[in-house]
Write a structure and sequence with these properties.
Elements (H helix, E strand, L loop, with lengths): L12 E3 L5 H5 L6 E3 L5 E4 L7 E3 L2 E3 L5 H5 L10 H4 L4 H15 L1
Parallel strand pairs: 1-5
Antiparallel strand pairs: 2-3, 3-4
């Protein structure tokens, strides 16, 4: 591999699934915001508004087929890690998952 190709063979893609009915009935709220660049995710519950950058971010409106067409390997983040009545706990779990993915 030439020097100009180093570091270009892994891309990190993030996809959020829609909330399920149980999560909606429990009054849970989404604590992330996808920036317009479709590469940056901000956590809305932290005063510092931390942001995480990926090669591509898909929102909950994206179908599984659309996401699969990227050819990416997906790191799963389950609903309780993204939505919770306890924002601090959700933020902590989400931050850990993003740090692992980066």
């Amino acid at each position: 591999m030439g020097d100009n190709q180093k570091g270009n063979n892994v891309k990190v893609v993030c996809r959020f699934r829609p909330p399920n009915q149980k999560e909606l009935n429990a009054g849970n709220q989404v604590i992330y915001h996808i920036e317009e660049d479709a590469q940056t995710v901000a956590i809305k519950t932290d005063a510092s508004n931390p942001k995480f950058t990926f090669d591509r971010v898909f929102g909950s409106e994206t179908t599984q087929q659309q996401a699969n067409e990227t050819g990416a390997f997906f790191f799963v983040i389950n609903g309780p890690e993204v939505m919770s009545k306890m924002a601090g706990e959700s933020e902590s779990n989400l931050r850990k998952a993003f740090e692992e993915a980066e």
